[in-house]
């Protein structure tokens, strides 16, 4: 391994080492495979650490004979990019596999390529350059984003075909990329841009009900610090009109309780010290699990503390809230989306205001000190009356006696392949007027309003076609990110 020489590289190396040293590994992998694969998360380590899908991909890649896969993350100050697993620099790896979840991470992916002097456009790369494979949730939302960048695009859940894809790459890469492309062109969930072959559908892993993803390392950095993450469900049956999860990521698949217990018991057996063992339950809405109470009973019986990734407000109950309090949680987070029942019903999120207030009151009476609300504005068919209803909800919750009320209100972003995919992002002037309606009525409440600019850029990246992406990449290459963002705004 090449050690850093410059002071700036040492600082980068030491930061990566700090995160690496913080991890308690629950599973070890050989670093001796003949083919070095870099699994890159183009965002911060803190976000990476809470991404269970990323950990699952890492586990799958290392199960392929002859492959040694290592993890990388992004920081805008990085120039070399060192591995979390061996501290090797990224340019020593032959395959670069990106897992991309958020729209703005598109720019981080491009930045990594540019900093390592790898041509951003796939058709400009030679055999000496790394093989670039891109997957993750953003591929499902808009694969066109990566059509000119990726050598190969993987669509859907990794468990289905990723092992096969990597195995074929491992066997044929020495014969050249063109051979690899021909070998993989018949896999339905793979896009091969150079052959103008696009994927048909997304890979959906049905066996997740018996085989849930779980943490392969614990760390004190991130939202779920020092917690063992385990998924208890994939997909969603709710079909809210604005949400990608129920529309894009397959049908609802709750994990069997026996599989959850088995995974947790195995983790407990591996840990050096289980006194502070904590679990992060991961699902689009954990309390949508049909046997969620059985999971709660098990956690209480084993005296395991837990936290949750997200909750559905109408199925919150006393047992769940007491379990969270027992686990040291004193903030309840829910997403009413809007204070207007009429608008919420239109969105197919059929929860009454009365029920939302009842659940929040129950949490307050049981001992929760803080409440966090996620809401949107700029929604389809939204009126000033709807905005006033949202303000009234925020005011009412603020007067319930919590020590802290956190309100996050974001501009609505229409997503592809949802009921609103053909709608435009609302005009900025109109959003400003709507924002004023909220602020006038909420003078005494702290409300965090999401960036209009970032939301608009998300919308554009979600909907741009490959030709406009090609123009965007040209601007990004020649004039930098700031000009590229202006270019997106003017499209």
Characterize the structure shown.
With 491 residues, the protein is an alpha/beta fold. The protein folds into three domains: 7-195, Cobalamin-binding domain (Rossmann fold, 3-Layer(aba) Sandwich); 206-310, Transcription Regulator spoIIAA; 315-450, Transcription Regulator spoIIAA (2-Layer Sandwich), CATH 3.30.750. The chain has 18 helices and 17 strands. It has helices spanning 7-22, 45-48, 52-61, 105-115, 137-141, 158-172, 177-184, 244-248, 257-270, 292-301, 318-326, 341-346, 353-366, 384-398, 428-441, 452-463, 466-479, 481-490; strands spanning 24-25, 35-41, 67-73, 95-99, 131-135, 152-154, 190-191, 217-218, 227-231, 233-234, 253-254, 278-282, 305-308, 331-337, 370-377, 404-411, 447-449. A six-stranded mixed sheet has the order 3-2-4-5-6-7. A four-stranded parallel sheet has the order 14-15-16-17. Strands 9-12-13 form a three-stranded parallel sheet. β15, α14 (384-398) and β16 form a beta-alpha-beta unit. The relative contact order is 0.09. The mean pLDDT is 95.
State Rg: 23 Å
Largest sheet: 6 strands, mixed
What is the CA–CA distance across the termini? 45 Å
CATH class type of the largest domain = Alpha Beta
Strand order of the largest sheet: 3-2-4-5-6-7
Mean pLDDT: 95
Which SSEs are present, and which pair or pack?
Layout: H1 7-22, E1 24-25, E2 35-41, H2 45-48, H3 52-61, E3 67-73, E4 95-99, H4 105-115, E5 131-135, H5 137-141, E6 152-154, H6 158-172, H7 177-184, E7 190-191, E8 217-218, E9 227-231, E10 233-234, H8 244-248, E11 253-254, H9 257-270, E12 278-282, H10 292-301, E13 305-308, H11 318-326, E14 331-337, H12 341-346, H13 353-366, E15 370-377, H14 384-398, E16 404-411, H15 428-441, E17 447-449, H16 452-463, H17 466-479, H18 481-490
Parallel strand pairs: 2-3, 2-4, 4-5, 5-6, 9-12, 12-13, 14-15, 15-16, 16-17
Antiparallel strand pairs: 1-8, 6-7, 10-11
